[in-house]
Amino acid sequence: MLFVLPDLDWWAIAPILAMTITACVVLVVDLIIPRTPHQTHLAIISLIGLAITAGLSVALWDYNHTSAFGGMVAADNLSQFFNVIFVVIVAATILMSHDQLDREDFHPGEYYPLLLFSAIGMMLMASAADLIMVFLGLELLSISLYILAGFSRRRAESEEASIKYLLLGAFASGFLLYGIALVYGTAASTNLGCVGAALGQRSDFMPASCPTVASPIAAGQLPAMLLAGIGMLIVGLGFKAALAPFHLWTPDVYEGAPTAVTAYMSVAAKAAAFAAILRVFEIAFPSLVPDWSAMLAIIAIITMVVGNTVAIMQQNIKRMLAYSSIAHAGYILVAVVAANQLGAQSVLFYTLAYTLMNLGAFAVVILLGRRGEENVMLADYAGLGYRQPLLALAMAIFMLSLAGIPPTAGFVGKFFIFRAALDAGQVGLAVVGVLASVISVYFYIRVIYLMYMVEPSRELGPAPRAPWTSLAAGLAAVAVLVLGILPGWALAWAQAAVGFIS
Questions:
Q1: Distance of alpha carbon 118 from alpha carbon 127, whole angstroms
Q2: Residues paired with 370 in a beta bridge
């Protein structure tokens, strides 16, 4: 049998290569150059590499090579959209971490490469055209996050968060891998395009040839093994997206991890998981929408209800934002359930909006911390509007956006999500989403009330100089308002990225 060399299109993975080279350069520079108190040069190298990665992703727009490396990688607009989001996430995290690393005595030479390698995992998930590539990207992301969650070695809570995340994450990865095996056993392939072809749906993501499958699938007789495989894929990816009931790790890990890492996890893993969910379900299983959308609709309802109701009872703002992130995963899942182009467009837009407003909120949490004291209780925000008015204003913008109040990005994102659900006939799901969003207004507005209407119960001491974190918070606040007032450009960008979805 003649071996055929697969199509090695290196340009298709140029952003991933740039990120990989950047991570390796940071590691080498840390070994060569003597350590300084802030290690600012490592942050600058990382930011330059991220800028190059973003530039390459923009250059690859409309490249649309959907079967590079033997059908393992797709270099299309969807992957480029998410690549830019990942660059924004990592860049903002580096800005937020720079001041905290020195305050907490962390080692930047380990921290920045871990961020970059986890971003490579996310980029692999977003560009995956094969279930094996989804798994590889997920594992690279997960292993980096396990280490980052326990990066604060002197705090027992951080070590506990790392262990919990590792154990539960490994269990979820097992579900994902078993689901992949069941899909392969049914469709005789793990390539997304070939799986779709086995179910009677041909697409541009098919490689040159796909294996012949047994007749029951072609005849429309859906094997139970395939449905079980889809269910296990939902469990594995739902864990990373913090969907209920696979969310139990989230509050403890978010509370125990360093705040900058919590901010990163809350948006990075979620964005990567939904990128993979879009790819897998819209390319491999578009002919099974009634089957998987029913499962996801139930999960979306549980996620929105659990996230918003439990968040009301939290007194720790990191735990409150943890349950908030669960609820927002439910909103994004509503758009996935819609299974139409507007729904996919809403997934991309809301992921971008959520990234900005949640990273901004955590930047404020970091700015309120002191050496050895995180100040993460809600009572610590009392009187912040009088003590630090600009910081309180930024936090108010993020809380209003998370609540979905106009004219913020959160309002526009929720509007299009619920509209996509209505267009798809998911009226009940849209109603539950709106009611859950109304409930969430209470705990977001409570933070604003504390900042402006309650006298501080204690003095927090002078605020440390944190220009990089302040820059991240300021840019995020402006971006949230711009995206809410002028959303057209981002919506058009998202629409161009999901053109392959009917």
A1: 15
A2: 373
Q: Which two tokens stand for residue 221?
A: 């007789």
CA dihedral 394, 395, 401, 406 (to 10 degrees): -60
Mean pLDDT of 321-342: 92
| Start-end of H helices in 242-340 | 250-256, 259-279, 289-311, 317-338
Say how far apart CA 299 and CA 296 lie, in whole Å: 5
Is 155 exposed, middle or buried, given 0-12, 13-18 or 19+ CB atoms closer than 10 A? middle
SS3 111: helix
CA distances from 107 to 33, 111, 379 (A): 14, 6, 31
pLDDT of 245 over the 50 cut: yes
Taking CA atoms, 311 is separated from 177, 245, 280, 443, in Å, by 32, 15, 31, 7
pLDDT value at position 430? 93
SS3 label, residue 502: coil
Cα–Cα distance for residue pair 41/46, rounded to 1 Å: 9
255-309 pLDDT, tens digit per residue, is 888 888 999 999 999 999 999 999 999 888 888 888 888 899 999 999 999 999 9
Beta strands in 71-148 (DSSP E): 73-75
Q: Is the pLDDT of residue 219 over 60?
A: no
- Model-level pTM? 0.92
Work out the angle between the directed axes of helices 341-368 and 488-497 (0-180°, nearest 10).
120
Task: Judge whether residue 1 has pLDDT over 50.
Answer: no
